[in-house]
């Protein structure tokens, strides 16, 4: 459905952030993109959604295809209309609008205005807590509620592909579990394809079908999730495990530092 | 008492026009952080276009107003396109300088086309004054007040409930997030400028019917500053309330203080308020509270 082929992204014409990034998201699947800070995960999402332009970033090489059509260089609004919706990092709800209005704003690109009410109800079905808060100013919601609203707002656009940028950011572990459970559920009920970028590898691998691991602007490892979690490097560097089912002991860390094999 | 009421009513009328013009000003500030110093010139252009249509082309007044407003929509969009859009991403101060330049340019063109002498609308509203108890009010005053109030209500409802209004507020809140959901921020800003030009033009037509039209009307654009500082730069209700307060205050100062010390207080009073507000409550009466979750 979505294909990135050898994409290079440069900011300000000098800073090369993506260095030949290739990735594929098959229709109807949940794909996760993992990596440490500064690896280029958010840039990858912005390259897809067209938001790079507002930050003076450009795709200098490679191409991005969605449903067999090139989308690099398109305006963000065109891309949203094609069916790709990015939930930005840090939630970014419209703080001075109430919950209902945030959802209405999310449906901006929809042409079937009549179904908006019904879809607002659908969102409240996934996030019952929001229903009680629907007239509350979004800026006063808790972090978890704002994240629910951000995802709900994305649902309002009825996207084919939803890009989620670190939905776990700054949330309590229980809430993270809940939000990821709902993400999976949305994928199953609505058939929405999902690409989720995460630092929290554990929870992301818990719901995804396929995973990519990126470092320094390119993919270093990829595979079906069950294969990824068996990979020694992933276990060591992303899941914090060294033996099956055993937590890593900090005493051992001192003796021996594992080398990432994919870098050599 | 009659004198007081008389002054109060003229203050309300002036205040209503201030509220309209300030409304456009605040819209632009909210949606794009631009302080539009050319707001007064928009008012002037609107007044002159309507006047020309009525006087030279003999267009009936309602049609002339409709035509003027559509031209102002175009003017607002064109100005945004030609003057403001190239400044996207530039520093705020450059944009402000651009609007000052725009105001001078527009004023120059206006004076070239229409000259500087005062022109008056032919009697459109009936001359017969209306008696409200002891107070005598000319009909144009009542019409102006009614038009301004109706417009302000219509726009408030528009922003609160229509989907375009909601999206405009969304874009004012977080442009990048708005962009990410397919909202065309450029289009929103263009709509904003169109609305600002239209409300200013309506203000101009109303004032023109009361006092006649000459280039000094553009100073209303400056009077907007005390209004919006008092109300809060980014608050639409603030612009309305501030407009009425400043209008009434100015009128009271003109009625009671000017005779005492020989004039001038009327013009100064709003700016005294401006200074006072800046010292005591710089974000104004209804300035946006920055929502912070601690």
Q: How does this model look, in words?
A:
The complex is a heterodimer of chains A (about 260) and B (about 290). Chain A has eleven helices and twelve strands. By secondary structure, chain A is an alpha/beta fold. Chain A has a domain at about 1-95 and about 155-230: P-loop containing nucleotide triphosphate hydrolases (Rossmann fold, 3-Layer(aba) Sandwich), CATH 3.40.50. In chain A, helix 3 (about 100-105) packs parallel to helix 6 and helix 6 (about 145-155) runs parallel beside helix 7 (about 175-190). Chain B is an all-alpha fold and about 290 residues long. In chain B, about 75% of the residues lie in helices and about 0% in strands. Chain B is built from eleven helices and two strands; from the N terminus they run ααααββααααααα. Chain B has helices at about 1-30, 40-55, 60-85, 90-115, 140-160, 165-175, 175-180, 185-210, 220-230, 235-260, 265-280; strands at about 130, 135. Chain B has a two-stranded antiparallel sheet. The termini of chain B are far apart. At the A-B interface, helix 2, helix 3 and helix 6 of A face helix 6 and helix 7 of B.
């Amino acid at each position: 459905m979505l294909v990135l082929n050898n994409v290079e992204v440069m900011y300000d014409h000098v800073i090369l952030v993506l260095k030949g990034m290739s990735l594929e998201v098959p229709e109807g699947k949940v794909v996760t993109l993992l990596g440490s800070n500064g690896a280029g995960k958010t840039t990858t999402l912005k390259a897809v959604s067209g938001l790079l332009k507002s930050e003076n970033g450009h795709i200098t090489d490679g191409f991005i295809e969605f449903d067999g059509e090139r989308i690099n260089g398109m305006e963000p609004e065109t891309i949203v209309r094609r069916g790709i919706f990015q939930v930005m990092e840090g939630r970014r709800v419209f703080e001075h609008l109430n919950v209902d209005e945030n959802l209405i704003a999310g449906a901006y690109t929809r042409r079937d205005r009549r179904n908006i009410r019904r879809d607002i109800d659908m969102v409240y079905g996934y996030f019952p807590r929001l229903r009680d808060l629907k007239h509350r100013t979004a800026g006063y919601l808790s972090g978890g509620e704002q994240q629910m609203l951000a995802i709900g707002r994305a649902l309002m656009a009825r996207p084919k592909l939803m890009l989620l940028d670190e939905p776990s950011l700054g949330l309590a572990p229980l809430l993270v579990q809940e939000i990821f459970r709902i993400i999976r559920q949305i994928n199953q009920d609505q058939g929405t394809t999902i690409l989720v970028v995460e630092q929290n590898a554990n929870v992301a691998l818990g719901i995804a079908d396929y995973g990519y691991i990126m470092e320094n602007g390119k993919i270093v490892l990829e595979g079906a999730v069950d294969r990824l979690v068996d990979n020694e490097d992933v276990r060591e560097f992303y899941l914090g495990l060294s033996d099956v089912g055993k937590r890593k002991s900090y005493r051992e860390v001192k003796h021996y530092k594992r080398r990432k094999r994919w870098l050599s | 008492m009659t004198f007081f009421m008389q002054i109060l009513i003229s203050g309300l009328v002036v205040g209503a026009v201030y509220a309209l013009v300030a409304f456009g000003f605040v819209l632009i500030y909210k949606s794009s952080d631009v302080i539009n110093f050319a707001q007064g010139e928009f008012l002037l252009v609107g007044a002159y276009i309507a006047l020309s249509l009525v006087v030279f082309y003999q267009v009936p007044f309602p049609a002339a107003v409709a035509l003027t407003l559509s031209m102002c929509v175009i003017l607002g969009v064109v100005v945004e396109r030609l003057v403001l859009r190239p400044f996207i991403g530039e520093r705020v101060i450059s944009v402000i300088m651009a609007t000052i330049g725009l105001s001078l340019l527009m004023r120059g063109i206006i004076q070239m086309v229409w000259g500087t002498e005062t022109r008056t609308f032919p009697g459109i509203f009936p001359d017969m004054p209306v008696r409200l108890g002891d107070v005598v009010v000319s009909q144009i005053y009542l019409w102006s007040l009614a038009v301004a109030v109706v417009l302000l209500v219509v726009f408030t409802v528009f922003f609160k409930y229509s989907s375009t209004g909601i999206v405009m507020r969304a874009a004012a809140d977080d442009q990048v997030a708005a962009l990410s959901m397919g909202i065309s921020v450029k289009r929103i800003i263009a709509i904003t400028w169109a609305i600002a030009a239209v409300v200013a033009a309506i203000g101009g037509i109303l004032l023109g019917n009361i006092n006649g039209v000459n280039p000094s009307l553009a100073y209303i654009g400056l009077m907007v500053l005390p209004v919006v500082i008092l109300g809060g730069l980014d608050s639409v209700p603030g612009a309305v309330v501030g407009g009425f307060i400043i209008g009434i205050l100015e009128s009271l100062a003109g009625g009671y203080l000017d005779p005492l010390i020989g004039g001038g207080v009327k013009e100064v009073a709003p700016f005294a308020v401006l200074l006072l507000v800046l010292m005591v409550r710089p974000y104004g009466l209804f300035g946006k509270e920055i929502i912070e979750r601690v």
